[in-house]
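Regression test case RT-17, inverse folding.

Input:
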């Protein structure tokens, strides 16, 4: 024990002497070796430590000496502008490295989680962008009249108006101010509307349209003239003005002649519709065949067109013409069908609706020579029978849509032929008066059928129609004017075909 105390005593004396030297240097008043007024302080310090050691145990000596040294060392420091780091700080620096301030973490901006009020909500652009998607282009016309905010947002993008055409009744425009019409024409540009229909227009209305809407020359792609009294001169003026016109429709324009078509038609037209124009006959079809080499779609409704008109088509159109619709061409016979299949073998859409002189033999020509057909319309062809449906089922393997409305000689046997067509997705049998429940049973095996119309079929019963629930893939079913369709049947169909639109 004494040896331990003696060793510790020596250590303490050394440390105390060092502390005294530090204090002397810091004070600047004491001399070397403890001389002078401040020279007795180190000796006093050493003496005090020794006295305390002699009167306490070894453990107490250690504790008290440590406390005394810590107190004195902590109080030491240089007298200057900047304090030197203390012992504790130096030890911490040696053991842990130099202390650095912790990087300051930027405070996250607090989000405003308060819900929008209804007046704010209905003007929020993010909400409106999704809200407008639930409406079609025609319905958005009304939405644009709610307020200026909705109008400006809808007018800002053409995507809201795809497929919409602007219809102008020229009888009303004659009393409208020029400023009002200018605003309307500007809205057509802003909305990206590329189609215009002029109703009841005269030559003067055409000239006024060109004057007030000069931007239409390079903006309008499609124009329709309905019930107009314009002459060949007015037609020539509008076609010369519209430099990017691709689609032309003439309906009920009885002042336009075949000579006018020869003078006006431009090769850039790819879609042409001529309907109920009394001066349109075979020569008009000749003008179309000669002047429109890039024609893709041609729709014709003319009572005086004969088989000879279809002979004007040549291999020039065979590569481009894909859609041909001949409506109510009463003079067209099977000889005209021969001209069609030889000149236009690449047709994908053919309509012979109302061509009442076409028979089963004409349909056979179509089935054998137009293998690319996707859509065929034989509605209002009273001479078509079950035999024609057999030709269709055997040869038109890619047919997706078939229309047989008012084909009164179609029976369950013919429907049985059709039911073997695996690619058929749309079938229209409106007012087929001989169709019975047995024919409906045939239809239940058509797994690709998505659209079916049995409207006006008088012999169908609720029992036969209820079997349609087997068509799980059906998306639209039309049963209007069916005597066998009862409210109970509709409830039954709605229950088992929840994804099908049932038109009652």
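Golden output:
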């Amino acid at each position: 024990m004494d040896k331990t105390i003696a060793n510790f005593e020596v250590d303490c004396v050394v440390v105390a002497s060092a502390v005294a030297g530090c204090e002397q240097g810091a004070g600047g008043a004491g001399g070397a070796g403890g001389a002078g007024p401040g020279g007795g302080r180190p000796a006093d310090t050493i003496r005090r430590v020794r006295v305390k050691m002699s009167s306490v145990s070894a453990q107490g000596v250690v504790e008290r000496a440590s406390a005394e040294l810590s107190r004195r060392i902590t109080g030491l420091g240089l007298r200057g502008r900047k304090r030197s780091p203390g012992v504790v700080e130096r030890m911490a620096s040696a053991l842990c490295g130099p202390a650095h301030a912790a990087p300051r973490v930027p405070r996250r901006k607090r989000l405003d989680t308060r819900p929008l009020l209804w007046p704010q909500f209905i003007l929020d652009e993010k909400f409106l962008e999704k809200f407008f998607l639930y409406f079609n282009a025609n319905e958005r016309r009304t939405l644009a009249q709610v307020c200026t905010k909705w109008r400006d947002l809808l007018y800002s993008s053409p995507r809201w108006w795809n497929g919409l055409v602007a219809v102008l009744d020229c009888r009303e425009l004659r009393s409208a101010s020029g400023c009002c019409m200018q605003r309307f024409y500007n809205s057509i540009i802003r909305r990206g509307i590329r189609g215009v229909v002029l109703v009841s227009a005269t030559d003067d209305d055409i000239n006024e349209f060109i004057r007030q809407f000069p931007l239409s020359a390079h903006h309008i792609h499609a124009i329709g003239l309905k019930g107009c009294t314009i002459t060949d001169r007015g037609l020539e003026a509008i076609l010369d003005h519209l430099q990017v016109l691709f689609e032309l429709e003439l309906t009920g324009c009885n002042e336009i002649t075949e000579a006018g078509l020869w003078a006006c038609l431009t090769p850039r037209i790819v879609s042409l519709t001529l309907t109920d124009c009394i001066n349109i006959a075979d020569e008009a079809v000749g003008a179309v065949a000669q002047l429109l080499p890039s024609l893709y779609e041609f729709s014709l409704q003319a009572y005086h067109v004969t088989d000879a008109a279809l002979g004007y088509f040549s291999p020039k159109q065979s590569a481009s013409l894909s859609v041909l619709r001949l409506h109510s061409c009463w003079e067209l016979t099977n000889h005209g069908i021969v001209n069609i299949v030889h000149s236009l073998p690449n047709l994908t859409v053919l309509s012979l609706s109302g061509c009442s002189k076409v028979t089963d033999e004409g349909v056979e020509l179509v089935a054998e020579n137009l293998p690319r057909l996707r859509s065929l319309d034989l509605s209002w062809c009273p001479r078509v029978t079950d035999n024609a449906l057999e030709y269709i089922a055997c040869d038109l393997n890619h047919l997706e849509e078939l229309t047989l409305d008012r084909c009164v000689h179609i029976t369950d046997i013919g429907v049985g032929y059709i039911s073997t067509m695996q690619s058929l997705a749309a079938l229209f049998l409106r007012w087929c008066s001989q169709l019975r429940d047995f024919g409906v049973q045939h239809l239940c095996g058509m797994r690709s059928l998505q659209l079916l119309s049995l409207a006006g079929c008088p012999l169908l019963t609720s029992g036969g129609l209820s079997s349609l629930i087997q068509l799980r893939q059906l998306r639209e079913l039309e049963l209007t004017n069916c005597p066998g369709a009862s409210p109970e049947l509709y409830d039954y169909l709605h229950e088992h075909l929840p994804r099908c639109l049932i038109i009652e």
